[in-house]
Amino acid sequence: MKLKTCKRCGFKGDVFQVAAHDCVVKNPPAVQQELERLWFIYGNGGPKHNPHDHKFIQRHVEGRGNEAKFYSPTVECRKAVRIALSAT
Which of 23, 28, 40, 86 has the fewest CB atoms found within 10 Å of its own CB? Predict the structure, then answer.
């Protein structure tokens, strides 16, 4: 059986294990702090809150990565998260 590797976290397993595993990546402290700040703007009842932005940022705060295809965040929120993630 040929092993596959997760591109985000390096987890190794067969194709089904890699597809099904719960990938968690630890954000650097500065990135984590910025994501949490954004979460209080776009999520968690903040001034620009909507449920899709809330879940999108929450996944990044938890280290679970980009789930934009499931949550449909606003363009403004995606851009702010992208900038935060690039500030490593």
Answer: 86
